[in-house]
Amino acid sequence: MKIKIAIYLSSFLLAISIPVMAKKTPPRPFLLQQTVNLNGVQVPAGIYELSWETERSTVRVTLRKGGEVVAAAPGVLVKNGARYSEDAALLRVNSDGTRSLIEIRIAGASKAIVFKESDSAVSYTALKR
Question: Of 81, 126, 70, which Cα lies nearest the Cα of 103?
Fold first, then answer.
C-alpha cells in the first residue's frame, strides 16, 4: 500500500515538474507599412515572416526577412470577442514621432499578441489575404 502511494506521488511530482512545451506557429507573411520599433529594434517597413511560440498566454514573437531575424519580442496572447478578418499591426505614436508596435491582430482568429499598453494615439496597417 505504501509503495503504491509512493509510486503515484512520484509520478505526480514528475508530471508537474516537466515544463510545458511551447507551441510554435508556422511562419506567415506580415506587412508593416511603416517603420516601427519592436523591443528596442527599429524595423523598416516591408513584408516579414511572422512566427511565434506560445506557452500558456506568454508569447515570443519573431520577425524574419530573408531568413534572418530582424526583431524578436515577448508578449501576451489575448482573446477578443471578434474574429479578425486580416492581420493588423496596432502602433503607438511616440512623443518623438516614431511608432512602436504594441499589438498584432491575427487574421482568422479572435486573438491578438499584445506587447505594451498605451494611452497614445494609434494607427493601423494590415496585410490583405
Answer: 126
